[in-house]
Amino acid sequence: MNIKFLNKNELVENLKNIENPLSLVILGHLTLLILAVPYYGKFEPTVYYSILVMFFNIAMFGIPYFVKISFDSQDNKDITNAKNNENDELGIAENSDNLKNNSLKYHIINNLRDFKKPLALLGLIICGLVAGNGIYAFLGIGAAILFMIIGFALLELFFGYYRKYSLACNKEYIIRNKKENKENKENKENKRNMDKIGYYAGLFGILSFIIIVLKYGNIPLLDYTIRMGIANEPLRLLSYGTLSYFALSGFLPFIIALGLNIGLGYKAGVLTVVVSYLIWKKKTSKISFAKLVFWAFILLVFLGVMSKLIISTSGQNWSLNFIEMLSYRAYFDIMSFDKVIHYPQMLMGSTTFIPNGEQVISELIYGYKHNITTTMFAPFHLDFGLFGGGFLAFLFGLISKKIYENIDLKLYCIYGAILLSMTEIGFNYGFLIVVALFSYMAVRMQDYKIKYIKNIR
Q1: 419 phi and psi, to 5 degrees?
Q2: Dmax (CA) of the chain
């Protein structure tokens, strides 16, 4: 394994992209610290040490963005380069062969050859074990097996469809192309076919939302009992993911996806849709940093209003207005983090690697079971202490960087948005499934990932 510090230009390139995982993690934690300012007088003196621990974990998460970690030794460099050249030649031949046999069935079957690569097979096994265990914990072995089979089939269908049109458009998706020629017409046709993935995802999401409303008898946002009842509902999770992807298909799909996620009653879903859309617009069109800040502020205000509405449906009566609620929520998150940091025992994975482990945290520090928010790295520290938690933060940062570099932009927009939401919620088993899934998809897609180009005149 080779470790090399990045030079000045590489560091600047890494840090100027505000959508990269490190920037999002820093942004999320700073937002909480700023929002909690009105309550700083109520914190225990121990909170300042806890904030230092918070930044220690952020620094550990950020190490992969300051160094380059590779697994090719210098002795094998020439061999690696030769293999890369050979792979390039094989890729050209494969691409030519793919274009001659450009059917969805061919690409689905051809994609199964990916499992000859140890990393792809390992990714599938880890993803299957993590996701399967999560489903088993809530729905039993039969449902776990059924959902794993369906999930594998849908993923292979997605990979086959994506690869087919990725190769057809030479791995390039041109957002705006004003040239009028035969090649441009072919590109537009391939773009329409790529966009269909988003529309299919939207159809799944809309149908899932409708089934939830019919099954439970009301819109979850308007009924607190239903909202809490669908916390582990597979249809909600399906709707959450597919609507986030659908939102990146255009402004109207974004509005539809946003409206339905508001209806589901979970702020994390709303945040994911909006933030993923903002990342997408930042990467594919001209949107200034000032506009990003403005829309981020609007999002925060809206989440405060949504919090007030959710509490009103629960029968509780809070005197705080929606702005004050944002500050109080940030104060509660940091206070919970402080309690976790000073808990006297390590739980050795009981919160991070066990489904519903976040309820363990609530029971330990507050005496009752509930899904509380503790900021991103609190579960790592509670399970493995300062240095063990820091090491997990480093691994998490490394994996997130690899996802950022190797997965399709639209999928990364969703991952980045979920990552930002986790800076408040805290790393939990549900997010562990997300990390495993996106890591697996990054391994599978890195060889035919589409490059999105803003425009060609």
Answers
A1: -60, -45
A2: 69
Asked if 172 and 453 touch (Cβ cutoff 8 Å), the reply is yes
Give tens-digit pLDDT for 265-275: 898 899 999 99
Check residues 56 and 310 and name the one with the higher pLDDT.
56
- Which of 141, 257, 75, 286 has its CA nearest to residue 275? 257
Tell which residue, 302, 297, 212, 272, has the closest CA to residue 423. Answer: 272
CA–CA distance, 156 with 8 (Å, rounded to integer): 41
d(CA 457, CA 446): 28
pLDDT tens-digit readout, 348-363: 988 899 888 888 888 8
Mind listing the pLDDT tens digit for each residue in 213-251? 999 999 999 888 888 888 777 788 888 889 999 999 989
pLDDT tens sequence across 145-194? 998 999 999 999 999 989 888 887 778 777 765 555 555 666 677 778 78
Residue 326 makes CB contacts below 8 A (sequence gap 6+) with 35, 300, 303, 304, 307
Per-residue model confidence (pLDDT) at position 90: 42
Residue 94: Cβ within 10 Å count = 16
In angstroms, the CA 364 to CA 248 distance is 40
At CA 296, angle to CA 394 and CA 198, rounded to 5? 80
Q: Counting runs of H as helices and runs of E as strands, what totals does the chain give?
A: 18, 4
User: CB-hemisphere CA count at 13 Å for 118?
Assistant: 0
Choose among 387, 396, 456: nearest CA to 431. Answer: 396
What count of residues does the chain have?
Answer: 457
